[in-house]
What we know:
This protein is an alpha/beta fold.
Amino acid sequence: MLKPKTRFIIYNKNTIFEPDYSEERRPRKRARLEDEESDELAGLFRDSQYYDPKLSNACVVLAGDTLFRVKIDVLSKASHKLHAIVDGTELSGDRNPVRLDAEPDEFRALVWALYTSPDEIRSIKNTTHLSRLCSLAKISHAFRCTSQKSLALSALRDALDLPPFETCSSSNLHLLAETAVRCEAPILLDAIVSRWIKRIQRHEVPCVPAIISADALHIHRLSGAACYAHLQEVAEQSVADPDNGVTHLRLDSKLDSPQKLQLLAGYWSLVNYWERFRRSPTRFVCCSHDECANIWERCWGMALGAPKVLQASQVDVSGLIRLVRESLAAHNELKTMNAECRAKALQSLDDASDSLNANLGEHFTKSL
């Protein structure tokens, strides 16, 4: 509970007065400049870490709503582009700052990197540091700070195998992927997407945020894998009405209409794919043994009739192919095939599964 304020103060036996609380103010994290100066600076803040009014040969930089005061020569050495921007700006101030098209967190990360050792930049301690590296990579790319960009992207690549990445949230995964896209780093992006997909498949992160991120960043492979995984969830949660057999698909409300259409298109495409796939055995380079192709065809039909295959969801094509392969591999008649032919026949199923997974994004289209 708040302590009640004193209504009267007894100064001496002849003097009693009411205290004046009108000057009390709540503490604030950052003092707005308009409290001290004119309305011309309304809404701007001085950075608590990188605004030093005592620095010589310094310039004032405005990034977003935040003012920074840093040494001109430090910024000039970062890149030719920054040198051209800050050269000769010693007279800049709060009223006439150097304006940069960057977010405050991004410029703060750049100044941090310029005063920090490379070993410290590479050291990933937690997701906060991960976020700062993303900010550093993006602003370094925008202002062509080659050295800082290289350090940041290298540290992010190394971080993919460290504990902070293994447990980071979907929002942090989006931040990492967005950074790789903006910095035009395809190798880093591929590594991030591969790990994101594995975490989706292990049910460590949800599918829907990945669908939304893939849509926003135009990452085709992530979109296909996330949509496919979400379809399996939808199939499990959608139960047919026992009276009329009607099934209502329960799509996540966070998805917009085009994304829901994308899922429905994928549903139809995958079911149609399985219908065509199961009609004829996969092809393989056969030997000269006449009986091998006949055995493969007979076993194929029996494998498709296995209880596990019949009970599986038709939209889980990857799972269906795996079940068919397991059934065929265990089939006694198939073991009578020439060993080399049997290996090639089973490999044809592995190849079909790999091709399906590599092209999942093609099944989920927004255009009909």
